[in-house]
Amino acid sequence: MRLLPALFLLLLTALLVLSWHGLAVLYHTETQGLRRMDVKASPPMLWIEVHDVSPAYGTAELEEITGVIDRHGKAVDRVVLFVIPNHAGATPLSSYPGFARELKDLAGRGYIIGMHGYEHSGDLRTPEFMVNRSRAIELVEKGVEEFRRAGLPEPTCFAPPSWRASEEAARYLRSVFQHTYYLLYIDTGNATLPYRSHEYTWYRLNMGGLRAAERDYDSSKGIFRLTVHMEAVNTEENLLFLDRFLSYVEGRKDEAAQR
Ligand SMILES: [Zn+2]
Question: What does each C-alpha distance from 17 to 12, 32, 219, 252 come to in angstroms?
Fold first, then answer.
């Protein structure tokens, strides 16, 4: 068989056997030399990620989100607050002791305080961590230093802004953090958790709502990742969505426990 038709046939077979997400994970594990680490849990665990946690938005907005999560302790297995150490180069955490105190309090109550970039500079085309290794080291060290100055524990989780990091930055991030969160998977030191992020709350945009979230949760196994962005989730409607979805997950877990 000629090479091109053979390649096409191979790709078609792969597409039929694997989902686009499965393919993305396969590509990532193969090119980065990682192993795939599936988790057995049904109904799935719920891991929440709160992105863009920043003193620029204030303590009250953060409390609106954590207030809802706190009401549904049974639904949630893990919450990471992804904090920007120096948002836009203008809001270093150490200059906001009230906000840092709130984070410390949340850490004491089981919330994981992760790091989300350093300044969260750049945009979708020029993300902050699409850089070489030495620049990535410089940014992480500055971020960790800012955590230290603010009296926060050293972060063990990291999410690059726009979910993207260059290959060499990704390798470095894996060597420093227990978990690095991307859109389609979460890296550990030498493995990938093949679970993608789900987000349903973006200002006033219709992202599918409660029905879509319930359907996605019910068709997932292992870990279900729910992502919310500070500010984007802080509308009455979106906070209500969060409350209702967490109630739904609680109900699912209760049912499973009674079986
Ligand atoms: Zn972000």
Answer: 9, 22, 18, 29
For ligand 1, the distance from its centroid to the CA atom of residue 120, given in whole angstroms, is 7
- Residue 190 φ then ψ, to 5°: -130, 15
Cα–Cα separations (whole angstroms), residue 9 to 1, 12, 13, 28:
10, 5, 6, 21
CB 126 within 8 A of CB 161: no
CA of 86 to the centre of ligand 1 (A): 12
Work out the burial of residue 149: count CB atoms within 10 Å of its CB; fewer than 13 is exposed, 13-18 middle, 19 or more buried.
middle
Centre of ligand 1 to C-alpha 184, Å, is 15
Q: What is the pLDDT of residues 101-129, one digit of tens each?
A: 999 999 999 999 999 999 999 888 899 99
Q: Kindly report, residue by residue over 47-78, the tens digit of the pLDDT.
A: 999 999 999 999 999 999 999 999 999 999 99
Cα 93 to averaged position of ligand 1 atoms, centre (Å): 16
